[in-house]
Amino acid sequence: MGTLLKTEQLGRHILVEYYNCDKEVLKDHKKIEEYMKTAAIEAKATIVQSVFHLFNPWGVSGAVIISESHLTIHTWPEYGYAAVDLFTCGDSVNPWDAFDHLSEVLGAEKTETTEVPRGLVDKIRHFAHEDLGDIKFKPDCK
Amino acid sequence: MGTLLKTEQLGRHILVEYYNCDKEVLKDHKKIEEYMKTAAIEAKATIVQSVFHLFNPWGVSGAVIISESHLTIHTWPEYGYAAVDLFTCGDSVNPWDAFDHLSEVLGAEKTETTEVPRGLVDKIRHFAHEDLGDIKFKPDCK
């Protein structure tokens, strides 16, 4: 029985496509902001700052900066579609909890996700000219 | 001679890893904010709002919301590493111009990129229950 590979990385990034969402929700920038913040809390992230914008005639864009990186959203209410990014670092947060929360509150019938490692420690070491010593998360992760 | 495939998508998203950057730049949140905004301008994007945060003891996180989606950055000065996302929609902007600009001002010796289509029109149509009619960008893209 082989031992599983373990890779070290600074962050993990989930790219999410939400299809067939509740169109009324997708055009409500107050709800979207609230849901993105509760998604951050569900993931056990610490919210630093957020910006949300309602476009004319509709469609919401926004970002929540968390101590552990960021969550962003862009909605196209007319197509029931939202593009979401959940980028977290450290092992005290779980972006999949944010994903589950958003799936539910956006009423997404269909979801697709891709998880991408960000800041692979072996790569950072490989390209560096000096010995970087111990590579670790900062006390507050970032 | 075959005809090239053409796919329609709402947005394009470039995930960038910048290695071996200028460490002094990566810890300067004022410069990082300035460079991210000039990157947006180089891409011919319209800046809506931005948030940047300097972490203790160092490392910068920030997002620039543009009419055409967003640009984000997270820096780890001690490792010379930055994770950047360049997400744009519409054909009037070119995220690769933002990439080139940031490569230069961050002094990145090594870069790696992945381009991901966001909001593929055929998928949105496929999962929808109703006929969505013409799928197009809004006048102001989002």
Task: Look at the helices and sheets of chain A and give the structural class.
Answer: alpha+beta
Major sheet size, sense and barrel closure of chain A: 6 strands, antiparallel
- The amount of beta strand of chain A, in percent, is 35-45%
Distance between the termini of chain A: 37 Å
The H/E string of chain A reads EHHEEEEHEH
Residue share in helices of chain A?
25-40%
Biggest interface, residues from each chain = A-B, 51 and 51 residues
Low-confidence stretches of chain A: none
* Average pLDDT over all residues of chain A: 93
Number of strands of chain A: 6
Oligomer kind: homodimer
Summed up, the helix count of chain A is 4
Radius of gyration of chain A: 17 Å
Q: What form of chain A results from the Cα inertia axes?
A: elongated
Keywords:
142 residues; six-stranded antiparallel beta sheet; 6 strands; homodimer; alpha+beta; elongated; 4 helices
Question: How does this model look, in words?
Answer:
Chain A has 142 residues and is α+β, with helices and mostly antiparallel strands. Chain A is built from 4 helices and 6 strands, in the order βααββββαβα. The first copy, chain A, has helices at residues 23-26, 29-42, 95-105, 121-127, and strands at 9-19, 47-54, 60-66, 69-76, 81-89, 110-120. The termini of chain A are far apart. The model of chain A has no long low-confidence stretch (mean pLDDT 93). The interface between A and B is large, with 51 and 51 residues.
